[in-house]
Amino acid sequence: MRQLSGKLWMLTSLLVLLFAGCGGEDGSDQTPQDEFGDEDVESMAEEEEEVDPTAFVIGYAERDISPPVGTILGGFGGPAQNRGITDYNDPLMGQVLYLSNNAGQAFMVISVDTAGYFFEFGDWGPGIKQLRETIEEKLEGIVHLPPENILVGASHSHAATDLVGFWQAAGEGVPLEVLELYLTKISDAAVEAVESAVEGEIFVAEGELVGYTGRDSDCSEIIDNTVSVLQARDLEGQPLATLVNYAKHPTTLPYENTVASADFIWGFREETLLATGAPGMYLQGFVAAVHGGSSRVSGADSFEKAYAMGELISQTALDTLDQAEKVEEYRIYNLETLYSCETSEGYLYDTYHYLNMPKRSIEDLGDELLVKEIPVSWHKVGSVEFAVFPGEGTPEYSYALRERMTGNAGFIVGLGNDCLGYILDPESVAADPSGQLEGYEMLMDWAKKPVPAPGTRWSPSVGSTELTRKGKSPLIEAFFSRFR
After folding, report:
1. CB 352: neighbour CB atoms within 10 A?
2. What is the CA radius of gyration of the chain?
């Protein structure tokens, strides 16, 4: 496959940044209040007051989702780089943790080894949207689990499958058979997790792992080193699964590597299983402009270093559980909103027109491109909160979200339910001496209000804030006003 060069390569290499700067669907002043009235809010509140759960019901399942040799890896480079899988160091995994209660409320966490995973691919093939709908359909008659109660988080390993299509040959998309493989195997695991669920307990804790990440370009000294841990146990005290959230790029394995791996998450899983007898799951944090730190771990080669990094995260998480608190609130809440996004120039606009990429539902309005459905969600399991965003946020936003959480543990999840590039705080952009954030990471030309996509009916209120190109992320601002 011939390599892209010069300006065109730079153009396509930013395709992954596509949409995280969101615009309004039509530039109107529509707010969620227009779609969701006070009577509906009162009705929902009355329904919630009738629910009085007293116990958790927990299930886990997993699948090896390694695609065939030759499947394109994601994370490094751009279209036509041809980083096809040549071998496997460890299996790429799809893991499912089902958290529910005895009142029928539920939340499902799915961790997938992939560089990124699109919400939808239009007519090209099934994405996360179709995966969540398929899970709901397969569970019909077993439990009520609507799509918005399901979180699908990409690990972001740069040695794992491209489920965005950004790294395929120019003009191509993710092979349909790969998308179907993930749909089938992960949805089957979801059913198994529900059918195997038992009554259990949840313990949570937060610790820190300092010195193993670093900011790019000296744009900021702020790093979110938080290690958030949730361990599900059966009533005998035996672990069922350990869920960890930490913000670190899985790029221990280098660009030239074509041996598929979960990167350091592989070591984390292995060591957690050895220590607890139960699986470890990893949710990626906010890693925009956050790299480095892996040089502090030792090993004969990059795979040994990756394992050592994962071992360190596992040990930190398990040590943190020494101060774990049992979750004794049993209600489960799930809120999700779909936003639309517009762009009128720049990398997305040019790449879409020149290369016919990505394979996603994009409406060409002539002077603008419109993507209608971008998910943002908030979940609460007892006293544990999850803020879920469809891209890579900067640590400033991670802390801003934590400050608004009221529970005893917070999971800040990046690359959740979509893969839409960087969500940058303006302070870091302004303080960047190299101009890298402005010239590479910074999303371009978003200057409108975020508004819900058609059919959205979740949280009852949101403020309308005018946002400029270098203002605060509309997704973050909408989250603050809508969910908290």
Report:
1. 18
2. 21
SS3 of 302, please? Answer: helix
| C-beta separation of 375 from 351 below 8 A | no
Tell me the C-alpha distance between 465 and 463, whole Å. 6
Q: Peptide bond preceding 358: is omega within 30 degrees of 0, i.e. cis? A: yes
Answer yes or no: are the C-beta atoms of 446 and 305 closer than 8 Å: no
> In this structure, which amino acid lies at residue 477?
E
Return the SS3 of 355.
helix
Confidence of residue 244 (pLDDT cuts 50, 70, 90): very high
* DSSP string for 332-371: EEEEEEEEEEEE-SSHHHHHHHHH----S--EE-SS-EEE
User: DSSP letter at 164?
Assistant: S
Helical (H) or strand (E) element with 349: helix 347-355
> How do 106-112 and 93-101 pair as beta strands?
antiparallel
Q: From the CB of residue 235, how many other CB atoms can be counted at a distance below 10 Å?
A: 11
Answer whether 13's CB lies under 8 Å from 78's CB.
Answer: yes
pTM to 2 decimals? 0.85
Total residues belonging to the chain: 484
Which residue, chain included where needed, has tokens 């879409």?
352
pLDDT greater at residue 49 or residue 425? 425
Torsional class of 267: left (φ above 0), alpha (ψ -120 to 50), beta (otherwise): alpha
Helix axes of 347-355 and 6-13: crossing angle, nearest 10 degrees: 110
Distance between CA atoms of 230 and 241, rounded to whole angstroms?
8
What 8-state DSSP symbol labels residue 452? B
> What are the DSSP calls for 90-149, one per residue?
S--EEEEEEEEETTS-EEEEEEE-EEEE-S--TTS---HHHHHHHHHHHTTTT----GGG
Q: Which of 432, 423, 374 is nearest to 395 (CA)?
A: 423
**pLDDT given for residue 18 in this prediction:** 38
Percent of the chain's residues with pLDDT above 90? 57
Q: Which residues, in sequence order, are CB contacts of 133 under 8 Å at separation 6+?
A: 147
**107 in Cβ contact with 381 (< 8 Å):** yes
Whether 227 and 269 have beta carbons less than 8 Å apart is answered as no
Q: Which of 147-161, 383-397, 465-479 has the lowest mean pLDDT?
A: 465-479
Residue (of 397, 206, 154, 407) closest to 317 by Cα position = 206
Q: Residues 160, 262: contact at Cβ < 8 Å? A: yes
- Residue type (1 letter), 137: E
Q: How far apart are CA 63 and CA 192, in angstroms?
A: 10
